[in-house]
Design brief:
seven-stranded mixed sheet; seven-stranded antiparallel sheet; 51 helices; globular
């Protein structure tokens, strides 16, 4: 049998079995003529040379195809070990090399009782189906068009017995039995083969299906891990290869596959299964030994993922190894990361490496085979080790001569060159290798894969001649004589620590940081004293100077601060700077602060007239309440800025009582204050008696007590003047541990005590001739739903208004002209509000209706009620106006769509703004808009109505909440999801609890019973949220509330976003100079000079000097990322800002900007501390992995652990201890104490195992004996004598402690201090390893540049709201919803929004938009709604303030001029210029015909109805998908052009071809069609297929746009709006191809953006830039 092999995925046992089949399956005839070379991997030309069988022999020949996979298949179903084409059928053969008894349990096969995998019979059946599908599509090419019969068989090549179900035995054979199928009779009996149909006469048919273009070598898959095609490491003797592997179910789950070929190992042990098992298990034994001693150290090593039995280790064996995540081999890590590390960071990395080996050597494990192949590093400075095959460890020792064969031998060690050398040990061998590795790390130089004698000698010479301090230590490690080296890695590590220079000076405060607060004035002359000082002490002077109060601290010289005063002054000045820009009305205005010529710190503030709190007399109750709220709001505002007063009492609070209560102002004095001693004064009367009370808690306590006194209440005892609500609120604070953390409860009590109870108005409505009893309609959760729509009988003259609430509905007729209700004609009773009415409602009121019958209609009270409701009247006018326009259009024969005045129904965006100009548009305050958008967000979540009263579950713990069976709210969730049930109560959202889907029943959800769940009643509407969504919403809502409550760093931030904002911009820093801009110019490899153009420079200057809110519009390709990078570098290097927060909507945008900023700083030698926050490491770019927050924390932990002795030793003197003693105690702790602790835990396990398995108990006792031996040995090292006797572990530890104390002359108190210090240090390491230490919060506060996404940066543990940033820069701001912007904006002193409102807008769910419109009293089709739904970027950009501060970039470099001109003409009202950018070289040659023009429209109109879309909810278009595939085929045929693209992609990593689909379903269809085609693997990588919504900010050389929408009625859907179209048209750099129907965008659609695009191309057609081509129908082939 001729067999064609695709080598690569076949194992040796499979090849051997197939070779046997090839020899067996054929006629008994003379062998063919010999053919030179192997047929494996060769073409069929070789097969044709083989001798053909004699004529008339119908059974033979057969042909085999081995080890292939279909290139476009998904998963393992398209992979085949062997397919045999016989004379009568096609046979799929799956090969398994198993031994022992094979059984089936629950659909999985077991080998000798051990589970292996899902039944191969089931797997092979699916493969058979896959092959059948492919043959079926081409069966017409066979004689008679008949589909051949396809069968399958699992063939076992090992020695095994089968005990399988009969249904499986039909498809399973052992190899010997299968070879018997060479007998035609047996073959026919076994496979029930039909009479000969001559398939073997049509091998060319099967060659066509299984050919070079359609298949590839089968992939190596081990336990669901697919090995990458190229080996990452190959043993010098080929005994094994290592491959990176990815889990086929989870691409983030990675492992390493080691493929053994023991035939390459020249040793008798490799010839037997037992011998191979011993070789293989060597590494496993080391890991088991290590795990018993240090689990964490073992976790940092490559270790087998599965257990292996001796009989399963075949001559070729695939081993699966688990690797720690995110690690790179030594050389790759050096090239990627070490080059940009500082010298200090490199040394620390080397210390971490030594620490890991010190741990191994301490456990008597030596690696002995170090090199690039076996040492791995991560950006977190975590180190992983692999290839322990040649390792030495104490219980077993060496491998003997086999080690030589298995070792890589990457380093030529001196002792291997001169065997006469003495003193070589496994540990000294490692020391030498570590010395070499350390030198390469310190020099950031990759290490050769083979270090020969000459290379090693060269390194030794370099180290000896180096002046760097680490080299002095490395010299000893690299001694040729092993006896002269360090004994082990621990001694090496200690020597490096001892040699580390003292850097304690680097921790001292740099007084130069205070220079920014220096002034040139003399305090005494600048601010002269008016009268006698208010206060004059040695520490502080306070006096009046005109309208100011001046404070100074004469005892301090800020030019040379002493005794820790520097950091205190810095903190004081920073708070003053923050408050000066805050604009807080409750603080005296800060006129000036800093220190004068003599270094005297001072503060000049506005003098406040008024009465102190304790001087307020004779105030009315109303005024007292206003004053109380003023104090509460002032303290809340202060706390909102994460500031506190700390010493609040009646004499530092002043009140200016106005003529009216609303004119009254409360002022906080002495905020902030400074004490030269560092102690803060505390008034005990106004401070709680609590340990470690925070300043904020003191403030809150003081507020409550002072309000009590203002209201004449006795703080200590109840009296007749008590206000019970306030007394109860304070009592609650007193009784709880968390008391006085917040003023919320007290404020609510004050509000409740003095706010009159709300009354709900009752409206009486009488219907004529209505029978039945009167009934009431009550509010549902505070709302009566109102639906306003045209009255069908007179649509242009009247409106139909329906009121729905608990109890029923009422429908009335409203006359918009007179603004009166004129009739009530329908009423019906119903217990709950129908869901459809709640959805349709576009308004709501809070009222009670009394509905009755009478002789005449009476709707007077209804008219009276709603005459006061401006929102209702405005809504009625809008609905009426829209209907009048609609009816007029119908009468004039126009399309109804043309009459819509606001928004397109598909997505609520404007169709034609020109039509809106004549319409009076009501505007809303931005505070109302923000609050509405945020508060209605919950309504976009799935919900249901409670159908009956909830009842207890039979377990008595949970509550079952019934719901209507047609509710689909739970369909999107899975059993493992954390789902919260939310009840809306007014403006509050109450979390009822977590839904347990497992306990829920068919028509009711299960939640734990609680006081909150009792609020749920029949008819309640409940919303469903994932925990993740709920957490995100809470973060965003909290940020928005802080801005609305004016608690953001910029208290008036909200005002700048009002569309009518006329606030004057503030002036700031000096303008940048020409030389400042010059530093950003650089020359690229192609010789092009890149820098800031004139528009960018003008924008730069505008945004630096004007604020506090800046706006930068960056149209496509105008270099906004480059601008942001230069801008941030300037802020850091020139302006001297302390911290910047950079956020964006997408991870990609954040990564790109941060990378560019770091590149500027490296090039210009500017120091920059960056942190990149994310809760997912795979979204962080490789360039930023070293500053990814988790990696920084891990690096800190690893570094601290590695330098533990060094760090603890440096603190010894401060405790009055000797350094040697402290470091010895660290050794005792690591070598003795840890073992004692482990033995204690082991004793507890042994005790628990007394009643259990005897074998387990014995194993634990054996382990205890081993650890005791190790403990005795380690104790001997410190005691200096052999440990004898039966001491308990604790007694032995005490002996060591006593001995060390005696030797070092340390007394018990100092000894305890030392133990406490070591314990504290180790707890610090442990806390960094867990989530208990919020190191991320420290990074947030301490880094200069903080980066993350808009929402991700608000993660709760980061405590963003407690941090202040000098600048907050938000990229893609026009795409962000208000609450997303709020998270970042709330913490900035200055805010820069970067975006383009002509591109994608914020996206909202339809339900959310309907809820927003309903809450505002407008319709989603109204002009008002369009104005509301603009992005905040657009809102402020077009305001008077925005026009005064905004800047626009106007030179684009992305698109060729032909594309740029199209985009500028249609989407921008600015003059968007085209800058120069060189095109890739392969575009200067001949390009495929379909890309002959820069802009091409491929018109599908000619296809008629075939050009129409699918008409489904999310559209697809088959004709366009086929056209795109044809375009790609034409491009793929040009191999030279594709080679150019591939070369470019190898450098950029970005596919050069992008397909943009305007609808999600079209993306699915195009991807499906693309997957069906037989592309080369290289071409597949050149193409990406996405939707337009995921494309903003991205670019490709070639863009193909699938418009998708094409309808007979020409309804445009959301393609009527310009934003998405702009994004789609502006992504292409070199070629833009638009695929769609021209006819669709002609006629009445010609005025729409796509109509303008079509018209622009049509009118400008030429031979180079623009053309329109008819679609070329593509023939689809399955």
């Amino acid at each position: 049998m001729d067999v064609r092999y695709w080598e690569g995925g076949l194992l040796s046992f499979e090849i051997d079995a197939i070779d046997k089949m090839a020899k067996a399956f054929g006629p008994k005839e003379l062998p063919p003529e010999p053919v030179a070379g192997s047929t494996k991997g060769k073409s069929f030309d070789v097969l044709k040379q083989l001798k053909k069988p004699e004529a008339g022999h119908g059974v033979w020949p057969w042909r085999g195809y081995a080890g292939f996979r279909f290139a476009n298949s998904r998963g393992a179903d398209g992979e085949f070990d062997l397919v045999i084409v016989t004379h009568s059928l096609v046979l799929v053969v799956e090969l398994k090399h198993w031994r022992g008894e094979i059984t089936n349990h629950g659909g999985k096969w077991h080998q000798d009782g051990k589970e292996t995998e899902v039944s191969p019979v089931d797997k092979t059946r699916r493969k058979t189906y896959e092959l059948r599908k492919r043959i079926k599509g081409l069966k017409s090419r066979l004689p008679g068009g008949k589909e051949p019969w396809i069968d399958f068989c699992v063939v076992l090549t090992g020695k095994c017995t089968l005990n399988l179900p009969e249904v499986e035995m039909q498809h399973v054979m052992v190899l010997d039995d299968f070879l018997e199928m060479a007998d035609p009779k047996r073959f026919k009996d076994r496979f029930n083969a039909r009479s000969n149909i001559g398939l073997n006469e049509h091998f060319d048919f099967f060659d066509g299906i299984i050919n070079e273009g359609t298949v590839k070598p089968k992939e190596l898959v081990v336990d669901d891990y697919r090995a990458q095609s190229q080996a990452v490491f190959t043993h010098p003797t080929d005994v094994y290869r290592e491959y990176d592997a990815v889990n086929i179910h989870n691409k983030d789950d990675r492992a390493m596959v080691r493929l053994w070929d023991f035939s390459k190992l020249d040793d008798t042990r490799a010839r037997t299964a037992e011998g191979r098992y011993r070789i293989l298990s060597r590494e496993r034994d080391v890991m088991v030994y290590l795990r018993r001693r240090d689990q964490e150290l073992m976790n940092r090593c490559a270790r087998p993922k599965r257990n292996t039995s001796p009989d399963s280790v075949t001559e070729q064996y695939a081993e699966l190894l688990e690797m720690p995540d995110g690690h790179y081999r030594l050389n790759e890590f050096i090239n990627r990361f070490v080059e940009r590390m500082t010298a200090h960071e490199r040394v620390q990395l080397f210390k971490i490496l030594l620490a890991q080996f010190a741990g191994l050597h301490g456990f008597k494990i030596a690696h002995r085979d170090l090199g690039d192949h076996s040492v791995w590093f991560s950006p977190s400075s975590s180190i992983a080790l692999s290839n322990f095959i040649s390792a030495y460890y104490q219980p077993v020792g060496t491998l003997g001569d086999l080690r030589t064969l298995l070792s890589i031998g990457a380093i030529a060690l001196p002792e291997d060159q001169n065997t006469a050398m003495e003193g070589s040990t496994p540990f000294r061998r490692d020391v030498f290798a570590l010395g070499l590795m350390g030198w390469h790390l310190l020099q950031a130089r990759p290490m050769p894969l083979k270090l020969d004698v000459a290379y090693v000698a060269g390194v030794q010479a370099q180290v000896e001649s180096s002046e760097d301090w680490p080299a002095k230590v490395l010299v000893q490690a690299l001694q040729n004589d092993p006896k002269e080296r360090f004994d082990d890695a621990s001694a090496f590590q200690q020597a490096l620590s001892d040699s580390t220079p003292d850097n304690s000076a680097s921790f001292e405060f740099d007084n130069r940081r205070l220079d920014v607060f220096s002034t040139d004035l003399r305090l005494s002359s600048a601010y002269r004293e008016d009268d006698e000082p208010i206060s004059d002490t040695a520490e502080k002077l306070i006096y009046r100077s005109g309208p100011l109060v001046v404070k100074s601290w004469p005892s301090i010289n800020a030019r040379d601060p002493k005794d820790g005063q520097g950091p205190m002054l810095m903190a004081f000045f920073e708070v003053l700077e923050q408050l000066k820009g805050s604009g807080f009305a409750f603080l005296p205005k800060i006129e000036h602060f800093g220190y004068d010529r003599s270094g005297n710190p001072f503060l000049a503030q506005e003098h406040i007239d008024g009465e102190h709190w304790d001087e307020l007399k004779g105030l009315s109750v109303e005024t007292r309440i206003v004053v109380a709220h003023g104090l509460i709001d002032a303290v809340d505002g202060l706390h909102g800025q994460q500031l506190s007063h700390g010493d609040l009492h009646p004499h530092n609070v002043k009140v200016n009582v106005g003529s009216a209560p609303e004119n009254t102002q409360v002022y906080l004095l002495d905020c902030p204050d400074f004490s030269a001693s560092g102690t803060s004064p505390v008034n005990t009367r106004y401070s709680p008696v609590l340990e470690n009370c925070t300043p904020a808690e003191r403030d809150n306590f003081a507020v409550m007590r002072m309000v009590f006194e203002l209201l004449d209440m006795d703080w200590d005892a109840p009296s007749q003047k008590d206000i019970p609500a306030l007394r109860a609120a304070v009592a609650h604070e007193m009784d709880t541990e968390s008391g006085f953390l917040s003023l919320d409860r007290f404020k609510d009590a004050l509000e409740a005590a003095f706010t009159p109870a709300k009354t709900i108005e009752t409206v009486s409505v009488v219907l004529r001739n209505r029978s039945g009893e009167a009934f009431e309609i009550l509010p549902d959760n505070g709302k009566v739903f109102v639906v306003v729509k045209p009255y069908q009988r007179a649509p242009t003259k009247a409106l139909e208004v329906t009121f729905a609430g608990v109890g029923g509905q009422l429908t009335a007729e409203f006359d918009p002209a007179s603004r009166h209700f004129v009739n009530a004609f329908k009423a019906n009773q119903e217990m709950r509000v129908p869901a459809y009415l709640a959805r349709q409602a576009n308004h709501h009121i809070e009222a009670r209706f009394s509905v009755s019958g009478g002789t005449s209609v009476n709707v007077y009270e209804l008219t009276k009620l709603l005459a006061k409701d401006e929102a209702f009247l405005s809504l009625a006018a809008q609905v009426h106006d829209a209907e009048v326009r609609k009816q007029a259009a119908i009468e004039d024969g126009e399309s109804v769509a043309d009459s819509i005045t606001g928004e397109d129904e598909d997505n609520g965006l404007a169709i034609d703004e020109a039509q809106l100009e004549a319409v009076k548009v009501r505007s809303f305050p931005v505070s109302q808009i923000w609050k509405t958008i945020t508060s209605t967000e919950l309504e976009a979540q799935p919900s249901f109505r409670v159908s009956e009263e909830p009842h207890f579950h039979k377990d008595g713990v949970g509550l079952l909440i019934p719901y209507a069976m047609d509710a689909k709210a739970l369909e999107g969730f899975e059993a493992g999801d954390n789902i919260r049930l939310i009840l809306r109560d007014g403006e509050k959202d109450i979390d009822i609890g977590e839904i347990n889907l497992g306990m829920s029943v068919r028509d009711a959800v299960y939640v734990p019973a609680s006081s909150r769940s009792k609020r749920v009643q029949a008819g309640s509407q409940l919303f469903i949220q994932s925990q993740q969504n709920k957490t995100s919403m809470t973060r965003r809502r909290g940020a928005m509330e802080r801005i609305l409550n004016r608690q953001s760093v910029l208290p008036d931030l909200m005002d700048y976003f009002d569309e009518k904002c006329k606030l004057a911009p503030r002036g700031y820093a000096e303008e940048p100079t020409v030389s400042d801009f010059a530093v950003y110019e650089r020359t690229t490899a192609s010789g092009t000079v890149i820098g800031l153009n004139e528009a960018q420079r003008a924008a730069f200057t505008q945004l630096i000097t004007t604020g506090p809110v800046g706006l930068l519009q960056g149209p496509p390709g105008t270099g906004k990322t480059e601008f942001i990078a230069a801008f941030i570098h300037y802020l850091i290097s020139k302006v001297g800002v302390r911290n910047i927060l950079l956020v964006s909507q997408s991870h990609e945008a954040v990564n790109t900007a941060a990378e560019r900023i770091r590149a500027h700083c490296r090039r210009l030698d500017t120091e920059l501390n960056v942190v990149r926050f994310s809760n997912r490491d795979h979204v962080v770019s490789e360039e930023l992995l070293d500053v990814y927050s988790r990696n920084i924390v891990d690096r800190q932990r690893n570094g601290f652990s590695a330098e533990l002795k060094e760090r603890v030793g440096s603190m010894a003197s401060s405790l009055g201890l000797g350094k040697a003693f402290v470091q010895t105690m660290v050794d005792v702790n690591q070598r003795v104490f840890h073992l004692v602790r482990s033995l204690k835990k082991l004793d507890e396990e042994i005790q628990r195992a007394q009643k259990g398995n005897g074998a387990d108990r014995k194993a634990l006792q054996t382990l205890k004996s081993s650890l005791m031996g190790e403990l005795n040995l380690n104790a001997t090292l410190f005691l200096g004598e052999l440990v004898e006797g039966e001491s308990t572990p604790q007694e032995l530890l005490e002996r060591v402690y006593d001995h060390v104390q005696t030797v070092h002359g340390v007394r018990p108190p100092e000894f305890k201090h030392c133990l406490d210090l070591i314990q504290l240090s180790q707890e610090y390491v442990e806390r960094l390893s867990s989530n208990r230490a919020n190191y991320d919060e420290f990074l947030m506060r301490s880094r200069t540049l903080v980066c993350g996404t808009c929402v991700g940066i608000g993660l709760q543990h980061l405590k963003l709201s407690e941090t202040h940033f000098d600048w907050v820069i938000i990229d893609e701001a026009a795409r962000s919803a208000p609450s997303e912007l709020a998270i970042a904006m709330q913490v900035g002193s200055r805010v820069l929004l970067v975006g383009d409102h002509n591109q994608l807008r914020p996206t909202y769910e339809e339900e959310h938009k309907a809820a927003i419109a309903r809450s505002l009293g407008v319709t989603t089709s109204s002009a008002e709604f369009q104005q509301v739904m603009r992005s905040d970027f657009e809102r402020v950009f077009q305001s008077p303030y925005g026009r005064a501060t905004r800047a626009t970039l106007n030179t684009q470099y992305r698109m060729l001029p032909a594309i740029g001109d199209l985009v500028n003409e249609i989407f921008y009202d600015i003059d968007l210029e085209n800058g120069y950018r060189p095109s890739p070289a392969y575009f200067s040659q001949n390009v495929p015909e379909c890309l002959s023009h820069v802009v091409t429209w491929v018109d599908t109109s000619e296809l008629g109805k075939k050009a129409y879309d699918s008409g489904t909810l999310s559209l697809s278009n088959s004709a366009e998908a086929d056209a795109i595939i044809r375009l790609l085929e034409e491009i793929a045929e040009d191999t030279e052009f594709c080679a150019g693209m591939a070369k470019e992609m190898a450098e950029s990593q970005e596919p050069p071809i992008g397909v943009i689909c305007m609808y999600l379903d079209q993306r699915k269809l195009v991807r499906k069609r693309f997957a069906e085609k037989n592309w080369s693997e290289e071409f597949r990588k050149l193409v990406k297929i996405e939707t337009v919504d995921s494309y903003q900010g991205k670019e490709n050389n070639i863009i193909i746009v699938s418009l998708t929408r094409a309808k007979a009625d020409q309804s445009p859907g959301f393609l009527a709006t310009p934003n998405r179209i702009n994004v789609a048209m502006s992504r292409a750099m070199e070629r833009l191809v638009i695929v769609g129907s021209l006819k669709m965008w002609s006629g009445r659609n010609a005025r729409l953006p796509l109509g303008h695009v079509a018209s622009f191309i049509q009118t400008k057609q030429d031979t180079i830039n623009y053309c329109i081509k008819p679609v070329t129908p593509a023939r689809r082939v399955v």
